[in-house]
Fold:
Amino acid sequence: LVSAGRKITPEDIVDLKYVSSPVLDPSGQYIAYTLSVPRGAEDKPGKSYSEIWVTQTDGSNNRRYTSPKVNSWAPQWSSQGTSFTFLSKRKADDKLVQIYAIPIHGGEG
Structure:
C-alpha cells in the first residue's frame, strides 16, 4: 500500500498484486477469484503466480484455497455452490493443464 503523498516507484509497480476472474456462487454469498502474486527475489524469474481465493460478498472471511507459488486460475462454481473447479499446473514441469475441484469448506483439490 502506498501512503498519501508518496510517489509510486518502479519497485511498487513490480510488487503489485491484482485480482481477476471473479465468479459469484449460486447463493450469492461467496466470490471466488484469481489473485496474481509477483515472484519474490528468491524465486526463478518468470510471470506472477496465480492463486485461487474465496471471500464472502461482504468482504469477510477472505481465504486462499490453492498453494502459493503454484499457478491456478479460472474458478467456476458447481451448480449447488458447494464446490468449485479451477485450472492448474501444479508443478513447473507439468506439460498439461488439469481441472481440479475443491469443496467450499476447504480440502485438497
